[in-house]
């Protein structure tokens, strides 16, 4: 039996340098204050800090498949992959240049010795202002099994959690719609793994009522509709967050899986522990964790803002899950 280590990380504002060639004029203007002081040295330092964590994943072997968000473009993703060369992996990049108002995208880094990216799709969230699309990549494993990965970075809570909630409900509806279409085309046992920064918690309405994810495995395996199982429920109420706001732990980064990955009927299955639980991890490597009563991640930040710390990483922790084949 093979095991694939799959991870997700919101790497927080991995921008290219200020006045980077190829950046649209409107985006350069939009990001003017954020990019102040964002030199080649600062960008490369940010990448090196991310790499120092990624290379510790999977017991030092690095992830087999890593989903990321808040990357500006393929250029920075290629630089990130180049810096992972010491792992000896055949990493490649799948990236979608979305129309987000801040120019931040979703992408995947994958080991091409284990996965082949066969098809990619982007699913537009119909929102009045530009936002991130859902990014779907159909991966084929070396053994011939299909893994459909959908990267998510849903609209933020800026402006208020409840005021912005309808936008995340729209994102949830979009995910559920395309999950249903995937079932129509691939079959009801399709191996769908949706991962991302959903900017809501597993129990919020956008996740439960609109994206149709929940904490009942049986409701997914027995349902005829496009329901999904949220692997992050055990973290709710456990005091462990993937992101901290005002020192409250929030489980915003999640893995949600479709029927096939629970039953194993299509060759892939979320790996179970001996006690029947699913060994999902919030990857809190010691150097990432701030001191004090609240174990929030140490941010890298930006040169033009207070709290800039070149020894930081991101305002989110990575998460990981094992997929058996």
Describe this structure in words.
This protein is an alpha+beta fold. It has one domain: Endonuclease/exonuclease/phosphatase (Deoxyribonuclease I, Chain A, 4-Layer Sandwich), CATH 3.60.10.10. The protein is 22% helix and 27% strand. The protein contains seven helices and 16 strands. Strands 1, 2, 3, 4, 14, 15 and 16 form a seven-stranded mixed beta sheet that branches. The chain has a seven-stranded mixed beta sheet with strand order 5-6-7-8-13-10-9. Strands 11-12 form a two-stranded antiparallel ribbon. Helix 2 (40-54) crosses helix 3 (74-83). The longest helix is centred in the middle third of the chain and has 26 residues, at 161-186. The radius of gyration is 19 Å and the shape is globular. The N and C termini lie close together (6 Å). The mean pLDDT is 94.
Rg from Cα: 19 Å
List how many beta strands DSSP finds. 16
Could you name the CATH topology?
A: Deoxyribonuclease I, Chain A
Largest sheet: 7 strands, mixed
Taken as a percent bin, the fraction of beta residues is 25-35%
Kindly summarize this structure in a few lines.
22% of the residues lie in helices and 27% in strands. The protein has 325 residues and is an alpha+beta fold.
Name the features.
seven-stranded mixed beta sheet; 325 residues; 16 strands; Deoxyribonuclease I, Chain A; alpha+beta
What order do the helices and strands come in, and which of them pair?
Elements: E1 3-14, H1 25-30, H2 40-54, E2 65-71, H3 74-83, E3 91-96, E4 105-111, E5 115-123, E6 134-141, E7 146-153, H4 161-186, E8 192-197, H5 205-210, E9 213-214, H6 217-221, E10 228-230, E11 243-245, E12 248-250, E13 253-257, H7 259-263, E14 269-270, E15 281-282, E16 319-324
Parallel strand pairs: 1-2, 7-8, 9-10
Antiparallel strand pairs: 1-16, 2-4, 3-4, 5-6, 6-7, 8-13, 10-13, 11-12, 14-16, 15-16
């Amino acid at each position: 039996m093979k095991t694939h280590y799959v991870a997700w990380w919101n790497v927080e504002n991995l921008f290219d340098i200020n006045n980077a060639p190829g950046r649209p004029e409107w985006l350069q203007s939009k990001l003017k204050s954020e990019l102040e002081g964002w030199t080649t040295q600062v960008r490369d330092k940010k990448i090196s800090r991310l790499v120092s964590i990624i290379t510790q994943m999977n017991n030092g072997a690095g992830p087999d498949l890593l989903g990321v968000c808040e990357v500006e473009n393929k250029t920075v993703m290629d630089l990130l992959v180049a810096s992972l060369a010491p792992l000896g992996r055949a990493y490649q990049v799948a990236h979608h240049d979305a129309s987000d108002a801040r120019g931040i995208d979703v992408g995947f880094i994958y080991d091409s010795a284990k996965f082949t990216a066969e098809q990619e799709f982007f699913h537009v969230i119909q929102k009045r202002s530009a936002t991130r699309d859902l990014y779907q990549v159909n991966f084929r494993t070396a053994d011939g099994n299909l893994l459909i990965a959908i990267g998510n970075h849903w609209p933020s809570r800026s402006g208020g959690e409840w005021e912005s909630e309808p936008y995340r409900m729209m994102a949830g509806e979009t995910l559920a719609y395309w999950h249903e279409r995937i079932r129509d085309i691939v079959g009801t046992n399709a191996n769908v793994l949706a991962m991302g920064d959903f900017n809501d918690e597993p129990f919020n309405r956008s996740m439960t009522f609109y994206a149709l994810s929940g904490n009942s495995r049986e409701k997914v395996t027995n349902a005829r509709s496009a329901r999904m199982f949220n692997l992050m429920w055990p973290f709710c109420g456990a005091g462990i967050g993937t992101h901290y706001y005002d020192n409250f732990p929030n489980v915003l980064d999640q893995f949600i899986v479709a029927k096939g990955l629970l039953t194993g009927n299509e060759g892939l299955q979320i790996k179970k522990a001996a006690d029947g639980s699913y060994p999902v991890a919030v990857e809190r490597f010691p150097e990432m964790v701030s001191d004090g009563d609240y174990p929030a991640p140490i941010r890298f930040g930006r040169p033009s803002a207070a709290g800039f710390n070149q020894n930081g990483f991101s305002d989110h922790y990575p998460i990981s899950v094992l997929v058996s084949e």
